[in-house]
UniProtKB/TrEMBL annotation:
Record Pfam families: PNPOx_N
Name recorded for this polypeptide: FMN-binding protein
Superkingdom classification of source: Bacteria
Source organism of the structure: Geothermobacter hydrogeniphilus
Record-linked InterPro entries: Pyridox_Oxase_N, Split_barrel_FMN-bd
Domain named Pyridoxamine 5'-phosphate oxidase N-terminal: residues: 2-101
Length: 123
């Protein structure tokens, strides 16, 4: 189950950072909170327009770290809340997860589907 506070953050303005590790070390890419959708089985579905390096890294090591937050959501100590998500990822280029995002984002070339292992509120 995705925490309610995390769901609230995903509906607000904010930047998402996605970290992967490949043969040549770490790599980060960004997207927007509002682009993320949640599948029926609580995976994060993130549209990938480019993310070619991220895709290469996920093929090498499917572990990802994701941070996201919003100043518009009340956190533990006042304005602003954020999360650190640890999970496993895969790139999907066909099927329901792909079709769902393609209907929202015409520029989509793949869906980055993330199974959450942990979601920890950081502030």
């Amino acid at each position: 189950m995705i925490p309610e506070k995390l769901q609230e953050i995903m509906k607000k303005d904010g930047v998402v950072a996605i970290a992967t590790i490949g043969e040549d070390g770490p790599h980060m890419v960004n997207t927007w909170n509002s682009y993320i959708r949640v599948s029926e089985d609580d995976r994060l579905l993130i549209p990938a327009g480019y993310m070619h390096k991220t895709e290469t890294n996920v093929a090498y090591n499917n572990q990802v770290l994701i941070t996201l937050g919003s100043s518009k959501v009340t956190g533990n100590n006042g304005p602003g809340a954020g999360f650190l998500i640890k999970g496993t990822a895969e790139f999907v280029t066909e099927g329901p997860d792909f079709d769902l995002l393609k209907s929202k984002f015409s520029w989509l070339r793949a869906t980055l589907a993330v199974t959450i292992d942990s979601a920890t509120q950081t502030w």
